């Protein structure tokens, strides 16, 4: 494999609908010193065939775990920069060109960029703007917020950090950035260029429902310290493209939420009753 400026790693699971569009965006880039590795978790649809048709290197992962797949892809990277992109992204044709120019002038260690939604709906534009503002105000925090859908990182630094933690079901990018921050690596969030972030989940389950779910996750994290892999599935099922073909949204009832919250703890029926009474202000999270 020749040593390109960027190596782009795309983890996939049943992404026959989305991946070809991203690969075609990549083909149209004005800067083309990059290679692409699709790390597929044994898709049952045409993902692998379509990736190969586009002359893309495909690595098969024997584990269905996005972080594991990203780490596996990065092992094959011989570039100075490794880039993690999701199959449901779109990028404008000067995206890589602008990033390359930026890194050559400012030499950051890790970076990402602002997003635009894949929709013309006003509510999606507002949501994307709020996400951009959130990323902007957090960029100097000790644990900056980042979307795993677009991460540029120097390959050596990725290795030093030990890659993504494969045991984390949620926020693995943030976790890695937290470790990078501690070691003094330089992170940047670019306002320009922007990439198109897929709002397919919002389309499938609804914006308000998504906000409910994020609030529920944050409550679990506050109480339990973290979210287990089992819990995560109830809030944010990760099945790649499969979820959008035939995936069912797991229903989160107040009862289920309480059982997740207290599953490792002994709790008397009296305190459970009092908890249910006290949760009244939070009830809107379960409608
Ligand atoms: N192996 C594996 N890959 C996955 C899984 N879920 C997603 N992927 C792939 O990992 C990348 C990120 O997944 P997405 O489903 O886009 O994650 P997301 O953006 O948080 O969620 P969506 O809102 O559903 O798009 C995609 O390229 C997927 O194809 C999974 O459960 N297992
Ligand atoms: Mg996505």
Automatic annotation (TrEMBL):
GO cellular component: plasma membrane
Protein name: Glycosyl transferase family 2
Domain of life: Bacteria
Family annotation (InterPro entries): Glyco_trans_2-like, Nucleotide-diphossugar_trans
Keywords carried by this UniProt record: Cell membrane, Glycosyltransferase, Membrane, Transferase
Keyword presence, Glycosyltransferase: yes
Places the protein is found: Cell membrane
Pfam family, any one: Glycos_transf_2
GO terms of molecular function: glycosyltransferase activity
Organism: Candidatus Woesebacteria bacterium GW2011_GWA1_41_7
Glycosyltransferase 2-like domain ranges (all copies): 7-128
SUPFAM superfamilies found in the cross-reference section: Nucleotide-diphospho-sugar transferases (SSF53448)
């Amino acid at each position: 494999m020749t040593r390109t400026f960027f190596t782009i790693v795309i983890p996939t699971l049943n992404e026959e609908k989305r991946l070809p569009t991203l690969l075609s965006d990549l083909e149209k880039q004005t800067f083309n010193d990059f290679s692409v590795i699709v790390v597929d978790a044994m898709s049952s649809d045409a993902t692998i065939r379509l990736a190969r048709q586009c002359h893309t290197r495909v690595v098969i992962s024997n584990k269905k775990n996005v972080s594991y797949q990203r780490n596996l892809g990065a092992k094959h990277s011989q570039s100075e920069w490794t880039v993690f992109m999701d199959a449901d992204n779109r990028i404008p044709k000067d995206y890589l060109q602008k990033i390359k120019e930026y890194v050559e002038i400012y030499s950051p260690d890790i970076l990402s960029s602002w997003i635009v939604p894949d929709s013309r709906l006003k509510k999606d534009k507002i949501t994307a703007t709020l996400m951009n503002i959130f990323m902007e105000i957090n960029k100097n925090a000790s644990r900056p917020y980042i979307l795993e859908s677009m991460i540029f990182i120097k390959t050596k630094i990725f290795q030093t950090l030990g890659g993504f933690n494969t045991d984390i079901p949620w926020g693995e990018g943030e976790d890695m950035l937290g470790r990078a921050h501690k070691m003094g690596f330089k992170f940047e969030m670019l306002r320009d260029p922007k990439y198109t972030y897929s709002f397919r989940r919002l389309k499938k389950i609804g914006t308000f429902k998504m906000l409910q779910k994020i609030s529920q996750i944050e409550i679990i994290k506050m109480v339990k310290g973290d979210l287990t892999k089992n819990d995560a599935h109830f809030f944010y099922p990760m099945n790649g493209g499969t979820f959008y073909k035939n995936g069912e949204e797991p229903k989160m009832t107040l009862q289920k939420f309480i059982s997740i919250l207290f599953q490792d703890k002994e709790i008397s029926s009296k305190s459970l009753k009092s908890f249910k009474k006290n949760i009244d202000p939070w009830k809107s999270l379960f409608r």
